[in-house]
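WARN no homologs supplied; continuing
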Amino acid sequence: MAPITFGILTISDTCARDPTEDRSGEELIRLITDHSTDSGRIIKGHVAEVNIVPDNEFSIMEILTKWSDEARVNVILTTGGTGFSPRDVTPEATKKIIQKEAPGIALAMLTASLKITPMAALSRAACGIRNKTLIINLPGSPKAARECLDAIAMTIPHAVDLLLDSKPKIKETHEHVQNSGCRHHSENGTIALNLGHVAGRLRESPYHMISMKEAEEIINRYTWQGENEFVDLWDCHGRILSEDIRAQCDLPPFRASIKDGYAVVASDGGGQRRVLGGLEAGHSPGSIKLEPGFCVRVNTGAPVPEEATAVVQVEDTKLLEKTADGKEEKTIEILVAPKEHQDIRPVGSDIEEGSLVLKRHTRIGAVEAGILAACGCTKVKVTKLPTIGILSTGNELQQAGEEPRPGHVYDSNKITLMMLFREFGYAPKDMGIAIDDENVMIDSIKEALSHVDVLVTTGSVSMGDRDMLKPILTQVFKADIHFGRVNMKPGKPTTFATCQYDGKIKYFVCLPGNPVSATVTSHLFAIPLLHRLAGNYARPVVVRARLTSSYKLDSRPEYARAILMWSEEDPMPKAYSTGNQISSKLLSCKNANALLMLPGRTDDRGEMLAGDVVQAMLLGFQQNAI
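OK structure emitted
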């Protein structure tokens, strides 16, 4: 079958005036021509028509009618004009030219969007059919358009088959659906829910293995939902600003001396001056009146008299005469003639009242807290942090401190992850240990979801006969598995999912049970998600490092623990291995300050050698978004 042909119609007054502003149209073209959306669903398509029109009902109707009646495309995707603005008329224009409505497509997009943000309820998308062309309204933002297309991507090929009356393809799809029987549908196949029946377990994962880049893009779809709280200035360290901060006063609020010396009238030049007295920090600028031929002693940071036009540093003067008691200066000589405005900080030279000093989404560190204090802030509006729970799974786990039991190991993942999240400013809750029993695990998840926004689990995500977490999430909690396998080592079975629970979106980051895998994937997936939900859009710091030992490459890209060390001789750090990289050996994480990003093995390269340069992600460091 020939590829599906698409028409992309951007509807925007702004983009119609300046096509370079069109981001959503470009994103849709990319998704179709790249043949995939973020979740890996395939759309084999060709973009045959592209246009931009203003928010004008007639202009929209004209293009939709022309492309449909002339059979130029199978599917028209519009983007923009679906909101509440008076100029948003895309649904009205669409409804006037379609011959049949397709409400199920609009409902599918709305349902998926509501799982990400309640604001999706304000979208008014219309979908329908004209002749043999399917018309779908998508939102105007690139992010929302991508999410909505992702939600319906799997239905588009079958819809086109039905419109073109392609009987063989229609029959094939119907048989596939009918034969699915009682199996649960995943994003990329079906999952048999034969929990507890070893003979019935799958021998191959039904989840499409995606790249790290795709996994990162999926995580980045989720953002802070706009919840704020006020905290005291002394409690704001490490938090994320939820609004721009503007200075409430000038800094300095008066003309201040840069040096210890004498405030003078610069036009007097050099020579002798009578000393009127001194102004120290905290004094009023007008407490001493300066006249030509005189000077006023000032300290660094002190206000200068209103009449002063320069400050001469102590080093450029000589004492000529003391007062009678010998305690004060009476006359000095200025050895170097001053220049106008010399060593005087003007009012607001550091910070002007009303100026932007800190941008929204900035993480507050020590310096940022100092800036807030200097600007007169006592309360700070910050993003509300997501609540996090850590749930360990497995029959073999027991709490540290208990009497060792045969066949059991102490749960090291829990404390490792909780301490790691605390290092990044979060306050995780201990949700206990769930044994490999369906009812126990379901009850543990329900209990956790009643207390937290994000549930991080370890274990039960691989291919063992008791690895039941993914089927439970999809069947019991109706969760969407956004990815269930990632092409990486360690941590291939890492899973990310979302669901609606008690009217709120809940997030699952399901990590492998091996200690190293859990630790590494926390850095790569859990922490980035928590940052996104907290409004912290900083990115990990990646540097280039020189290997000091060789590494045999795996078929998957690998994240190897390493210690980077810098020296004066070489600006590029050297990477020292932390030892055996087996995923169960937590000691290989000890003292590691970076993850080496080793490429996957190819026919041309099966090994990295000492002296080779690779990228390395620094642990615990982030680059703020500008």
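Residues 267 and 340 are 8 Å apart (CA to CA).
OK
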